[in-house]
Write a structure and sequence with these properties.
Two copies of one chain form a homodimer.
Chain A (H helix, E strand, L loop, with lengths): L2 H8 L3 H9 L7 E2 L5 E2 L2 H16 L4 H12 L5 H10 L12 H17 L2 H6 L4 H15 L6 H22 L5 H35 L3
Antiparallel strand pairs in A: 1-2
Helix pairs in contact in A: 3-10, 4-5, 5-10, 6-8, 6-9
């Protein structure tokens, strides 16, 4: 398809597509002659992914380029490729210093991973931003005087594990590894807000079941 | 306790506490004489909540005042009080227009709520920002060419319902309704990032279990 059709199928204006091409977020089309290039389904898929990251996820262009670099690097093992793509996405901010609360939180999260038997997550803990985020949140709660210990986190972690199994099952519906990794990124951008919304809806439902509207 | 002790117990500088007092985010202490006021445990609890909202949740001061207004309004039924406090917190941005995708998403979410039997959430749907957020995300996915239908959302919603039951059980450990509502707000600010982090950790674990590190 031509640029105009790519724009029509994706709903992305041609000027924006040209910008993405210049920024290297979209691979160039197959040049037919000096002024015309041909694009295919893969361009359309990539364009949608870029659009989702920029418009819905508000990911900066440089980050998008970094994420796509991981998506396209098939020299890496799949777990690392998946992780690297997700890890480039926005996370909870880092704490300024390693105070006593952060240290206590580290110990708490380590106990949690042991109780869960999440050997792989433990192995990834030194490089995983998700692990880091969890430590930051647990430390923030401790600093506020709330002890959010492993025993309180455990049932949540088990439900999140079941959620992750659903995620991976959905991912595996896509035939190629590249598509799976693309869908994983979309998932991080769109499924997480969807999950959060479902969670809050469920809280409303349960609150009303327990306390009614009186 | 005096202002200095309140500062020491909370870790919040006295200048910041004075600012919160001026802004009405913290009720005034009991005046002992012209220059000294006395603060109690309730001040400390409120101060921690305000601190969490501003520093961890990055909630603007005017919003904090609005949320606290709902926390303190015991003329409202508990479900509404809980909801109103949570609903003042940041949400997924609203879509600019009610296009065909938003309309289709509305129908999809309505089907989902019917299948789940969430009668109360359905009843709250016209005023609930969580409902609105879910519609926005489903519409965004549709616009990108992904059909995220009720059948795909259903198992996620069921896991989120179990998560919400855990939330409410944890909430009910607190003796007073005011404390429960305060903890619910902290939950929205801190448990949601914690859940997100646990979810990503679980994805890493499951990805490594399925694909290893090769």
């Amino acid at each position: 398809m031509r640029l105009a059709e790519l724009s029509e199928h994706s709903g992305v204006p041609t000027a924006t597509i040209k910008y993405y091409l210049r920024e290297g977020l979209l691979p160039p089309g197959r040049q037919i002659n000096a002024t015309t290039a041909e694009y295919d389904e893969e361009h359309l898929r990539r364009l949608r992914l870029v659009r989702a990251m920029i418009q819905v996820g508000r990911v900066p262009v440089a980050k998008v380029r970094e994420v796509l670099g991981h998506v396209d690097d098939d020299s890496l093992p799949r777990t690392i490729r998946l992780g690297a793509a997700m890890w480039a996405l926005p996370q909870v901010p880092e704490p300024e210093n390693e105070d006593e609360y952060v240290q206590a939180a580290h110990r708490e999260v380590a106990v949690l991973l042991d109780q869960l038997g999440w050997e792989n997550a433990k192995r990834l803990s030194t490089i995983s931003p998700a692990y880091r985020s969890l430590v930051v949140v647990v430390a923030a709660l401790r600093r506020l005087g709330y002890t959010f210990g492993a025993e309180l986190l455990l049932p949540y972690a088990e439900l999140m594990y079941r959620t992750a199994v659903l995620d991976m099952d959905n991912l595996e519906r896509y035939p190629s590894e590249a598509e799976q990794i693309e869908f994983a990124i979309l998932g991080a951008i769109l499924n997480e807000p969807a999950l959060q919304a479902l969670h809050r809806l469920a809280q409303e439902e349960e609150s009303a079941r327990r306390y009614g509207f009186e």
